[in-house]
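Final report, closing paragraph on structural work. Over the funding period we assembled a curated collection of sequence-structure pairs, and we close with a single example.
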Amino acid sequence: MKSDVKFVVYVKETRKWRVKVNNYVTDALPHLKGQKGTFTHKVDAEEHARNIAMAYAAHKSGDLTSVNVSENTVSGLLAKYRQTKQYKDNINADSRRDYEHYFSIACKWRVGANTSFGKMLINNVTADTVDRLQAYIEQHYTYNCSFTTMTRLRTAWFATERYGIWRTNPFIKLGLARPEARSVAWTDELTDRMIEVCDQEGYKSISTMMIICLHFAQRIGDMRALKWEHIDFDYTCPRSSEKKVAFKFRQSKTGKDMMLYATPLIKERLKLHQRANTDDFVFRNDGDKAAKGNAYLKPYSEDLLRKRFLKLRRKHGLPENLWLADFRRSAATALADAGATESMIMSSTGHVSEEVLRRVYLIKSATQAEAGAKLRGIL
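Its predicted structure, as stored:
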């Protein structure tokens, strides 16, 4: 007998479990199209497959009440949110992955012995439920994670208001204080040490990505996705007619087109990376262990890059509070220390908001204070 929900499969590339569903199922129940999804754990995927199968069985039997229950759960609300213009058109791909990460944390929370938050009926979610969810995430993750999860869920609730699937939004008036902006930066000494460690271990791609992030004040994700087509080795500067190596790419988070000139060190580092025939990515899964099997020379995934960095940081005793993402803040702060104006810094970072630049990326330093004193003539 043919199964309506085909099976749960493991996708090696993403290391996720995926539910495969026959097309006639989603044709009959369009609201299920956004609910097939991928799962970290097989048991969650199997449970989701059973729910879809039950919904279709109810549809065939004419029991429309049973079918509608899945739409009236938290997971159903989030599926509706994914179909909105606000989610599809106003949130870029990187940010959507960020949203899904926080949704996943919330939906897996066990409200009771037999119920997860994702399976709760929307109108059974009360302010007390939300308070317990917030406390759980703060205890098992971080306050920042809790704050962001709550704000993402509040957005999803408001965005689905016109569908009439909820009576009240339990995520309003939470009274959560915005987390303090992270103020960690790499020192020159620690930067040199990390680059040395990566080079010694054979991870030259990671070293070069870090150097470019530090020189250009860019996000590590944009450098990970960099392709050779984004680098013009024979660019003529329009004003001086001088030949430059120019990086031309679009920031994934903001959609802003960037053009930055390579520094001498970046030019030298690019010589360490060879163009492959398979695709156009500059930075690849290198290192001794990467030579085994098919992983060799594949571009870095976000997850693999993070794991490699954490392993190297731990192995060589570097501070645990340092992250790859901190290179962007370190670079912006170094520019300010060198006397760059906010306009100059924003030309490098790609920021369009001076407020975000000041709050998130610029660390006030003694060097900047001293420069201000010199401008006033008191030093």
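The two ends are 86 Å apart (CA to CA). Residues 188-373 form a domain with the hpI Integrase; Chain A fold (CATH 1.10.443.10). We thank the funder for supporting this effort.
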